[in-house]
Every structure is written in structure tokens, then in C-alpha cells.
Amino acid sequence: MNLDFSSVTQFFGKLTLSTLLPALIYLIGGLIISKLILSVLNRGLKKSNVDVTLHKFLRTTVKLVLHFIIFMVVASALGIQVTSLVAILSVAGLAISLSIQNLLSNVLSGLMLLSINPFKVGDYVDVGGTAGTVKEIGYVHTKIVSFENILMYIPNSDVSNAKIINYSTEAKRRFNLRFTASYDSPPAKVRKVLLEYISSHPLIDKDPAPFVAVGDYKESSIEYVVRAWSDNSVFWDVYWDIYNGMDDLFKKNGLIMTYPHLNVHIQNKPSEDEKNAVR
């Protein structure tokens, strides 16, 4: 490809007031129009249902396109051959894109996340085993703050390819709790005590009603399954309340908590006199 660089390298010597004045007018007018368009866009985004995390990207993209158009118009007014300039920029763009493939992959993955919207800022998610609250969905990384208040940067390409669990989308959330009690504690009594305890919590939903049943007969204990619903916003408050009150509940009702153990019964071997006495 033969590119004509002369129009770019020699145009300084051809500058006159008649070429500078229109270019300056185009530049000022273009910037004013660009500012007005961006202002209208900002107002439109605020009134729209577009996710907030997408606003910054849309504003930046529109701004870059407008500035590119202004640049091309001003360059044409100054006498630069726009076709040659476009060809140069195309070659440069191809070279840059090849050198930053991973970056572009992350940017495209970020766009996909923003369009599919599997989560939004403020949601508590699990991304490929990494759990936390979404702080920002950027062009290259998604920022997640862990439960320990640690900020993590996850490349968008990894996020888009990972299994995503969003714990914040639904208004209600179900508890799936498991407790064990000794075989010496009657199952009917354990179920009754657990059901009354769960049902009495003010933040547990009455409909669907809480559910308690024997889940498994283990080697040294009986496992009980407890299921109940609450508002997602108070899930962890209720969760800790239930577990923190379990020890007092068992003691108050004479139930026995247990742990994996083995009972060994030692039987003395009878003496010869005892054997003869039995005979």
C-alpha cells in the first residue's frame, strides 16, 4: 500500500489565515456540539433504565467518536488528505490491536457482562469460587470486595468464562440448615423443638412454613434438616441468630448435642469357676 505522507509533512508550509480560520471555527463549533450531545446523553441515561455501570462506558465511547469526527473535519479543513490519514490510522490500529489482544478480550468481555447483566454494583456474588460484593464493573477488571473487606481485581475475560452465582437478585432466600442430636434424644421431640424455635423467629416467613425432618441416620448421631424462608436482606442476621441460640435451646429442652464418636463396651472374660457354675 502506497501512502501519501506529503500532505501531512508539508502542510505546515501551506497554512494561511484562510485555512486556519475555518479549521478553528470547525474545532470550536465541534467541541460545543460535542458538549451539548454529551449533556443530552447524560440526562437521557439518568432517566433511562440502563444500568449505572454502563453509563461511563457509553459516555466515553460517544465522546471518543465525536472527537474523532472533529479531528477528521479539522484535518480536512487544514488541507490534510483524509484518506491517507485514515489509512495510516487503520494500519496503526491493526498493529496496536494485535499487541493488546488480552486487553481487548477483557474489554469485550466487560461489554458482554454489561449487556447480559448477570450482576450489578452492590450485588453479593460468587465468581468461580471468589465471593464478595461487586464494587465496580470496569473496562478491563471487575472489582469485588470480599467479606473480609479485601478488594480483588478479576479480569473480565475470567469473569465471563466463570460460573457466576448471584445471591442478591431474589427478594427471598431459603435456609438449608443441618443439626445433629444424640440417638438418646427422641426424634419426635427434636423435630418439635426445632420447628417451634425456627417458627418463633420474627424474621422467618410464615408462608412457606418452616420445615423440619430427619435427614440422615449417622453412625453416632441423627441429622435433622431445617428449611425456612426469609427476606434476602436479613438472611445472615437470621442465620447467625439461629446458630447462636442452638446451644441454649438444646440445654433448655434436655436434648443432647453429639459429635462423631465410638462407644467401646468391654466385657470381662468369665473365669473357669463361673463357667462351671453356669453348667
Report a brief summary of the structure.
This protein is an alpha+beta fold.
Architecture (CATH level 2) name of the largest domain: Orthogonal Bundle
Largest sheet: 5 strands, antiparallel
Distance between the termini: 115 Å
Decide which structural class fits the backbone. alpha+beta
- What order do the strands of the largest sheet run in, or round the barrel if closed? 4-3-2-1-5
User: Element order, helices and strands?
Assistant: HHHHHEEEEHEEHEEHHH
Count the beta strands: 8
What is the overall number of helices?
10
> What is CATH's topology name of the largest domain?
Helix Hairpins
Labels describing this entry:
single chain; alpha+beta; SH3 type barrels; Alpha-Beta Plaits; five-stranded antiparallel beta sheet
What is the strand and helix layout of this fold?
Elements: H1 6-9, H2 17-47, H3 52-77, H4 82-99, H5 101-116, E1 124-127, E2 130-137, E3 141-145, E4 151-155, H6 156-161, E5 164-166, E6 172-181, H7 187-199, E7 211-217, E8 222-231, H8 235-244, H9 246-252, H10 272-278
Antiparallel strand pairs: 1-2, 1-5, 2-3, 3-4, 6-8, 7-8
Helix pairs in contact: 2-3
What does this structure look like?
By secondary structure, this protein is an alpha+beta fold. It has three domains: 6-99, Helix Hairpins, CATH 1.10.287; 118-166, Roll (SH3 type barrels), CATH 2.30.30; 172-252, 2-Layer Sandwich (Alpha-Beta Plaits), CATH 3.30.70.100. It contains ten helices and eight strands. The protein has helices at 6-9, 17-47, 52-77, 82-99, 101-116, 156-161, 187-199, 235-244, 246-252, 272-278; strands at residues 124-127, 130-137, 141-145, 151-155, 164-166, 172-181, 211-217, 222-231. A five-stranded antiparallel β-sheet has the order 4-3-2-1-5. Strand 3 and strand 4 (151-155) form a beta hairpin. Helix 2 runs antiparallel to helix 3 (52-77). The model has no long low-confidence stretch (mean pLDDT 82).
